[in-house]
Amino acid sequence: MSTQVPEQVEEESSADAEQQSAAQQSRMEKKRQNAAARESQEQAEAEEKASSEEDTYLLKVFRYDPEVAGKQEPRFDDFHVPYHKGMTVLDALMYARDHYDSSLTFRHSCRQAICGSDAMFVNGRQRLSCKTQLSDLEEPVRVEPLPHQEVVKDLVVDMEHFYDQMEAVEPYFQTNDLPEGEQLQSRENREKIKMSTRCIWCGACMSSCNIAAGDNQYLGPAAINKAYRFTMDEREGEEMKQHRLEILEQEHGVWRCQTQFSCTEVCPKDIPLTEHIQELKREAVKNNLKFW
C-alpha cells in the first residue's frame, strides 16, 4: 500500500511533465539548429557553384587529326576551364589537355615568351599563347593554328617552310676581314640593330602577311628582319653585305612587301619589321645607284 499522500503524487507528476516538456523543447531546438545548418550549407554550396561557374572560361579549340578515323574532319571542341588570376591561354590549354582530353596537341616549351614555339591564332589574331592573358580576351576564347600553314594535328602546324625561308638569308655572322684582335661594335651600331635581334622565330609575322599567303617563295618579314640584323651590322665585311643585298633584291625579296604593317602589329617582341624592310629597300636602291 502506497504511503505517498495525494499532494506528493501530484507534485511528482507535474515535475515529470515539466521535464518531458523541456526535453521536447530541447529536441525541437536542436532540429531547428540542424535545419538552419543544412540550409546554410546548401546556400554556401550554391554560392560556391555559382562562383565556380563565373570563374570559368569557355575555350573553343580547333581539332584535327589526319591519322584517326572520325577526327579527320576539322572541328571545334568546347572546354570550360577554371580560371585563376594570371592564367594564360597556354595555361588553359594545358588544363584542358591534362583534365579533359589528353589527345589535345600543341607546341610549348619555355612558357616565358622566349622559345616562340606556342604561337597560335587566338580570337582572330596571331599571339603567343604563353604571353596572352585570358582576362584580356572576350569569351568564347577561340584558339586555332596559325593561318597559311599546313596543319599537322590540332594546333600544331608544319614550320619547315618557315625555317627554309629563314635559312635562305644565311642568318649567321660572316666576314672576310677578321681583325687581328677583338672585333668591336660601336654603341650606336648595336642600338641600331638591337630590336632585330629579338626575333624568336615564332612565325606569327609570316602567318599574318597577306603577301606570304599568296606567294610561297616570298622570303617573308621574319627572314628579311634576320637579314637586316646582319646586313646592318658594321662588323660584317662589304663583300658579305653585298651578297645579302643580292639575296634581298631578288623577285621574291623586299620588293614584294606592300607595307601593310600586319607583321609589325602581331610581333610579340615589338620588332618594327615593316620599318626594317623599308630600310633594306633603301639600301638596295643605293646599292644599285651608279654615277658616271
TrEMBL record:
Keywords: 2Fe-2S, 4Fe-4S, Iron, Iron-sulfur, Metal-binding, Oxidoreductase. Its cofactor is [3Fe-4S] cluster; [4Fe-4S] cluster; [2Fe-2S] cluster. It comes from the Archaea. Pathway: Carbohydrate metabolism; tricarboxylic acid cycle. Residues 1-52 are annotated as: Disordered. Coiled coil: none annotated. Residues 16-26 have a biased composition (Low complexity). The keyword Acyltransferase does not apply. Residues 197-271 form the 4Fe-4S ferredoxin-type domain. The keyword Chaperone does not apply. InterPro entries: 2Fe-2S_ferredoxin-like_sf, 2Fe-2S_ferredoxin-type, 4Fe4S_Fe-S-bd, Beta-grasp_dom_sf, Helical_ferredxn, SDH/FRD_Iron-Sulfur, Succ_DH/fum_Rdtase_Fe-S, Succ_DH/fum_Rdtase_N. Residues 59-163 form the Succinate dehydogenase/fumarate reductase N-terminal domain. GO terms for molecular function: 2 iron, 2 sulfur cluster binding; 4 iron, 4 sulfur cluster binding; electron transfer activity; metal ion binding; oxidoreductase activity. One of its GO terms (biological process) is tricarboxylic acid cycle. Belongs to the succinate dehydrogenase/fumarate reductase iron-sulfur protein family. This is Succinate dehydrogenase / fumarate reductase iron-sulfur subunit.
